[in-house]
Amino acid sequence: MFLFLFLVLTVTEASSRSHNSWCELGCDCRGDLKFTICSRAHFDQLPARVPPNTELLDLSDNQISGIPERSFAKTRKLRVLLLQNNNISVVEDAAFSHMEFLQKLDLSWNRISVLTEGFSAGLAFLKELQLSHNRLTSLDSRSFLHLDALQRLNLTANGIHTIQVRSFSTMSRLRQLHLPDNRLTSLRSGAFSMLRSLEVLNLAGNRISKTETGVFKPLTSVTVLNLAYNQMSTVDFKTFLGIHAYSAHILLEGNPWNCDCDLQRVFRKLRSIQRLFLDDYYNLTCVEPAVLRDYRLMDVDTGLCLAETVTVLVITFTVVITVLAAMLMGERKRKKQKRGSTGRSRERYRTSRTIDSSFFCFPLRYMNKTQCFILFIFLHALFAGTVRQD
């Protein structure tokens, strides 16, 4: 029995020495060397010794400042690489080359400001890329050139203000794209081209005030479109009408809406489309006009067009009365001046007093041509009757 225990301890110790020979000081190698944990080890560069069979390498919460070229050439079996919360500002071209098994790469909470064309070289099978809380300012067609299999991309809280056309064109399998808390001010058509598999597009917390009509048209599979807490005061009905997904939930809370009749009409149409769902419609609040500030749109939407109609009627009535009064006063003045005169034909008398509809329709800008013509006929008849009575 004693001999058996001695042999077990000897084998365990030998195995431990073998493990330690592969494991960098400050790291913890577990699971038959498949898990290498080097978190909070105060490294300022990548460890030199990592077991070649490692599938999960955790280098988070260190002081690493750069990723040199072919840094992981000896650990090609990696499936998960965690580098979040370091000081990484430089990722050299082909730093992740030949990592055909890597499925998750976490580079969040670093200082990366540029993604070169070679950044994604070797990551053809990567499924999840975390780049949140870095210092990226723009994206172009070279940023994610080789990420053909990517399904989840997180770019939260960078300084991104520009997304060029076809920036995500290689990501035909992407399902989630997170871009909240950046500095986007507008969305151009083509920015999300080729994203036919995208299900979640999160754009909350930006500064978006303008969206081109066809920008969301490629998103044929989108289920969640988050545009909350941007700078949208109005919206074009055709912008969302271009979404041909079977069921799309749109979030618009926290925008400074200008609550007028046009906005009410747009939302009424959007809510009538069965494939679109405005999940937070009842939380939308008005910023303009000042009289409706902080009111919920749902509480005033039925009165927006009514108020506009009443305003138009008041303006129209005021203008009509003013024009009619001026016409009557002018006619009376002319009658006094020409009282007793003879020799003028009745036809000429009528012609000189014919009312031209363009004379008084011009100021009635809120009336269409049909309404203006009807009002013209009415006033002409009223005026002619007044002249006959006189």
Structure overview:
The chain is of the alpha/beta class. Among the domains are: 22-125, Leucine-rich repeat, LRR (right-handed beta-alpha superhelix) (Alpha-Beta Horseshoe), CATH 3.80.10.10; 136-301, Alpha-Beta Horseshoe (Leucine-rich repeat, LRR (right-handed beta-alpha superhelix)), CATH 3.80.10.10. Helix content is 29%, strand content 14%. It has helices at residues 2-22, 237-241, 261-272, 297-338, 346-351, 357-361, 369-389; strands at 28-30, 35-37, 56-58, 66-67, 80-82, 90-91, 104-106, 128-130, 138-139, 152-154, 162-163, 176-178, 186-187, 200-202, 210-211, 224-226, 248-251, 257-258, 276-278, 286-288. It has a twelve-stranded mixed sheet. A two-stranded parallel ribbon has the order 4-6. β16 (224-226), α2 (237-241) and β17 (248-251) form a beta-alpha-beta unit. The protein is elongated, with a radius of gyration of 36 Å.
Q: Ends: how far apart? A: 136 Å
Low confidence ranges:
1-19, 347-366, 386-390
Overall, the morphology is elongated
Characterize the largest beta sheet: strand count, sense, and whether it forms a barrel.
12 strands, mixed
Mean pLDDT figure: 82
CATH class of the domain at 136-301: Alpha Beta
Structural class: alpha/beta
What is the CATH architecture assignment of the domain at 136-301?
Alpha-Beta Horseshoe
- Strands of the largest sheet, in order across it? 1-2-3-5-7-8-10-12-14-16-17-19
CATH topology of the domain at 136-301: Leucine-rich repeat, LRR (right-handed beta-alpha superhelix)
User: How much helix is in the residues?
Assistant: 25-40%
Query: What is the H level of CATH, i.e. the homologous superfamily of the domain at 136-301?
Result: Ribonuclease Inhibitor
